[in-house]
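Re: zinc ion structure - here you go.
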Amino acid sequence: MFDTHCHLNFDAFKNKIDEVLIQAKTSGVDYILIPGTDIVSSRKAVEIAGEHEGVYAAVGIHPHHIYEFQISNFKFQINLEELEQSLKNDRVVAVGEVGIDRHSYGKTKYSDYEVDEKFIDLQKELFKKQLDLAIKYDKSLIIHNREAKEDVLKILKEKWDPKLEGKTVFHCCEPDGELLKFAVEHKIYIGVDGDITYSKEKQSFIKKIPLDQLVLETDAPFLLPEPLRTQKKYPNTPSNLLLIGKFIADIIKVDFDKLTKITVENSLRLFNLDFNHVKGGIFA
Ligand SMILES: [Zn+2]
Ligand SMILES: [Zn+2]
């Protein structure tokens, strides 16, 4: 299996990377992509990917973390320059996670945090700039959208480049017909996570996703799937992709091995990875 979105770069996995990777491999997870959310976690993603076979990195500034740039335009510029530099590293296969997030988070490190139009405008500006970087360096694109479908689709329509076709993913895709329609028309992959085990909306949405556009993700350490969620077995880990895959195979009535094969091939295509080169994955 391929966990296409796993934050091994977060503190929840500090000093536990080897242990977590062994568990993942034992559960049948051969490949992992680590997305960046700010400059520090992007650096960490590149570092971990550089040390482990089968593990790849994406670099990017998550829309929520653009908040700190409101007070420092200088920081905005130097962060963007550093991101651009790291795209020259061949373990970095994508720009992400980037996009627009209108959700108002209760728990955040920003003391005066508020989602207003000024903040959204800055999110839009940085999303466009990072999207341009993906095109310029021929990298894949990992899109984070939360409660901002209109904004995201508007920007994608305006900035779409054929290079992004087949190399973009709506990570943790909201169950929405319009997003799916756009994804089908532009060959954008749809990322499905462990919340499908308890979201009825997502359970009916997945039945509409073409199999050749489906990729799996844990979003670990977040989105712990059931029954672990009820058992409060935090944090989520990449090995739980097995639970997610089995749950999905069951509800869309596709043989689990077939689902694994198809989603791994989709993920390798999404991140432009050479099938022969990556054979074996983690610890190969
Ligand atoms: Zn996200
Ligand atoms: Zn994420």
